[in-house]
Specification:
Belongs to the metallo-dependent hydrolases superfamily. CpsB/CapC family. This is Tyrosine-protein phosphatase. One of its GO terms (molecular function) is protein tyrosine phosphatase activity. Its EC number is 3.1.3.48. Keywords: Hydrolase, Protein phosphatase. The chain has 10 helices and 7 strands. About 40% of the residues lie in helices and about 15% in strands. The protein has helices at about 15-30, 45-60, 75-85, 110-120, 130-135, 140-145, 155-160, 165-175, 195-205, 210-225; strands at about 1-5, 35-40, 65-75, 95-100, 120-125, 150-155, 180-185. The chain has a 7-stranded parallel β-sheet with strand order 1-2-3-4-5-6-7. The protein has one domain (about 1-225): Alpha-Beta Barrel (TIM Barrel). The protein has about 240 residues and is α/β, with parallel strands linked by helices.
């Protein structure tokens, strides 16, 4: 398995020993590679940290590979700065992980995603199943995905750790081809709660082994900077409840 969204970099997120303990645990769970994301302010030194982390793994005979990734908080300030081209991001990026603040209604997101794609980068919307705006505006979410955004669900949502609404939305997104990748968001403080394997098992049980395998393959493709396999998205129809009042 490959986890494309973690916060586990030694020297930044925690100590070297924490990192080694986490790496050993992830390997025992079947994880062979992880992408470690930092916010845009830290990306200038990310490559050095990643190089040192991989050397540490090699020195300790741990079969885990680390790569760096870009994560940004896609709020109104970032959207405006990106539009003005005030923000410098790594030029070799294929994907960019976007988190949206819960307190904002990201009506600006569609334009931001369009501008990111114009620069040859595929935006990955992280954990939309946990965001009230997307749960209440599923048709808007559908249109964003239809225009090319990639969606990453939280493994914790799949197994129910993020609550019933998040789990229901996550499974709906999978069923309607509105989700493409699963990741944990694990950190050096909570890696023992890593739920990626369990999430894939739940998906295989509830949506079929083929769906679980496709999501797993997409994580590997993302990690390798390759194109992922997507299926035509479907709108989520509103359910009408009938009753006697």
């Amino acid at each position: 398995m490959i986890d494309i969204y973690t916060h586990m970099l030694p020297g930044v997120e925690g100590s070297k020993q924490q990192f080694l303990d986490a790496a050993k645990y992830l390997v025992s769970q079947g994880v062979k590679a992880v992408s470690i994301t930092l916010d845009k302010e830290t990306n200038t030194s990310l490559s050095l940290y990643v190089k040192e982390a991989n050397q540490t793994l090699k020195d300790n005979n741990i079969s885990l590979t680390i790569v760096g990734g870009t994560e940004v908080v896609a709020d109104r300030t970032f959207a405006a700065s990106y539009h003005r081209r005030d923000i410098m991001l790594p030029s070799n990026e294929t994907y960019m992980i976007l988190t949206t603040p819960e307190q904002e209604e990201p009506a600006y997101l569609e334009q931001l995603l369009y501008e990111i794609q114009l620069n040859g980068i595929l935006p990955i919307i992280s954990q939309p199943e946990c965001h009230t705006y997307f749960l209440e505006n599923k048709d808007v979410f559908y249109k964003i995905v239809k225009k090319g955004a990639i969606v990453q669900l939280s493994s914790d949502s799949i197994i129910g750790k993020n609550g019933k609404p998040a789990k229901k939305a996550a499974m709906q997104f999978i069923e309607h081809n509105l989700a493409h990748v699963i990741a944990s968001g694990a950190s050096l403080d909570n890696y023992k709660q890593h739920s990626l394997r369990q999430a894939y098992d739940v998906i295989a049980k509830e949506k079929g082994a083929e769906t679980s395998q496709l999501l797993m393959q997409n994580a590997e493709a993302t990690f390798n900077g390759q194109g992922i396999q997507t299926l035509p998205p479907d709108r989520i129809k509103k359910t009408k409840f009938l009753g006697i009042f």
